[in-house]
Design a protein that fits this description.
The chain is mainly α. It has one domain. The protein is 70% helix and 4% strand. A two-stranded antiparallel ribbon has the order 1-2. Strand 1 and strand 2 form a beta hairpin. Helix 1 runs antiparallel to helix 2 and helix 2 runs antiparallel to helix 4. The longest helix has 29 residues.
């Protein structure tokens, strides 16, 4: 995996994409009349990212259950790059 120091490039790209999406959501929410919606837009984005990442990890664990069942502590070792991205996207969209 290509990396910059201890972080893989994909992690940096995903972080930048989430940060950009949060900024865009906040800018669009500024046009809404109620101030409560402004905070809700950014919060909803972070909630959907969190639950999407969790669902993507759980989907990957389910897909490779036999290997993870042999060493249960490895389920929390996210450094193995184990995320099923399409499950995460579906979960995030369902939340939104």
């Amino acid at each position: 995996m290509i990396g910059v120091g201890p972080f893989p490039v994909r992690v940096v790209i995903v972080f930048c994409a989430v940060l950009l999406a949060w900024a865009v959501a906040r800018l669009i929410a500024r046009r809404l009349p109620d101030g409560a919606y402004r905070k809700a837009a950014g919060g909803l984005l972070f909630d959907s990212v969190f639950w999407g990442l969790l669902a993507a990890r759980l989907g990957h664990i389910a897909q490779w259950w036999e290997e993870y069942a042999a060493a249960p502590a490895s389920m929390i070792a996210i450094g193995d790059g184990g995320f099923t991205w399409w499950i995460g996207v579906v979960a995030a969209l369902l939340l939104v």
